[in-house]
Amino acid sequence: MATKGPRRHHRRRHTKPKIASTTELILSGPTSVHHLPDHLLELVLLRVGSSLALLHAAFTCKSWRSIIADTAFLRRFRPFHEPHVAGHYHIVHPISHDKLPPDGNNQVFVPDTSTANALNRRHFALDFLPDLDWELGDSRGGLLLLYRRNIRSYRRQPELLFPDMIVCDPLTRRYQGILSWKEMYQARCLGLFLLDGVAVDDTGSSCISMSNFRVVVVVYGTPTACVFTSGSDGGWQENAASSGGVPIPEFHLISFVGRVGPSLYWRMEGEGVVLALDETTMEFSLVTFPYTVVGWPDESSAFRVIGGHRADLRVVRIINKRDLAVFAQLQGSGEWVIEKLVRLPQATCRLPGYGETYSQRPAKIVTANMRYILVKPREDVSWIVSVDLQTLEVEWAHERNNYAGAAYPYELPWPPALQACRADGRQAPQED
Question: Of 142, 152, 278, 386, which has the fewest beta carbons less than 10 angstroms from its beta carbon?
């Protein structure tokens, strides 16, 4: 019988698990932004510069449109971005011989440089209004407020009486007329303004649309805010408040000087205070400025306040009759200091059209906002220059310099409602 040989022991091989190298974790083949997970892509889209850039991003693909159109995303996006200003409606000033636009209205749309090549300005024409006898009074979001001039002369000073109004949406060419409030028909008005409606949008934010807006008319005397609310349950109502015990000067000594955040401001000549109306509470208050900031009593045309929806208030004023200064308030101390300064005679003397006598009289601010300021070297001339507040460069050839009236910003509607933001993947319509 055969004997068994020695038993061989076969060792089991214990192989270590193979660890993937860093290069193997990367997807094979070329990669792009489309490989980003949705939660990372959201972080990227939240950081685009403006609502206009967001709309451009929505044209990219279906997945991007789906993220951008999501209500939760829009709710996160809006608090960190100012509404995008597509351009300004400038009032044509007949006394300054401004050229009327082709549609015959006395206001003309001038696109912002960031949107000039992307927008067809004919979409902003107001030729759909029932007639041409309208004056632009205010703008908010994608809506405009116009009124019929109801002017009377008192001691050779024009006074605006409570007018008929119309609210319109240039892009959809819709409008709604608002008849003058009979109870206030002979009341003198310090201004009329558009406000967000009572309802909120899908993102939980206040909004404005043709079916959801308010109009406030500020009446002279004991300052009174008359508010019109749209909708079947809307109408006029009165909100009166005291002026704080300080006498309100004559009507022609009060001038509207700007809107910052939720507040409207009027300068009162002869007083060291500015009248303010809080749009949220509809309460009036008096804001005190140093005389070095508010200026002399007769310098109402050389004083403006500017600021965005969330920006701090700044004062723009002509000082020394010829220099443009922007005042800001220091945090903590509250002291007002000059933040920016442009010496107009030196900055404009070499520009085409400049007259040697232009620096001999006080300059006038035509209109002011956070982007630019339009300035006339003298009240009685039509030569206008614009000062860019970012670069402090002075321009004379820009289209906006052709108009000596007030300018009102036009903001792109919010939330975005174009086909580009639909999640069904349809192609956005091409520009005409």
Answer: 152
Sign of the CA dihedral 281, 329, 387, 380? Answer: positive
Tokens of 293: 């900031």
Chain mean position to CA 29: 46
Beta-bridge partners for 303: 317
Q: Reply yes or no on whether the pLDDT at 183 is more than 90.
A: no
Q: What is the pTM of this model?
A: 0.81
- Asked if residue 358 lies in contact with residue 351, where contact means CB atoms within 8 angstroms, the answer is no
Pairwise CA distance, residues 105 & 362, whole Å: 31
Give the amino acid at 229. Answer: T
> Could you tell me the pLDDT band of residue 27, with boundaries at 50, 70 and 90?
low
Contact call for residues 101 and 108 (beta carbons, < 8 A): yes
- Going by the DSSP 8-state scheme, the letter that residue 79 receives in this structure is G
Give the per-residue SS3 of 343-398.
Answer: EHHHHHCCCCCCCCCHHHCCCEEEEECCCEEEEECCCCCCCCEEEECCCCCEECCC
Lowest-pLDDT range, 69-73, 139-143, 303-307?
69-73
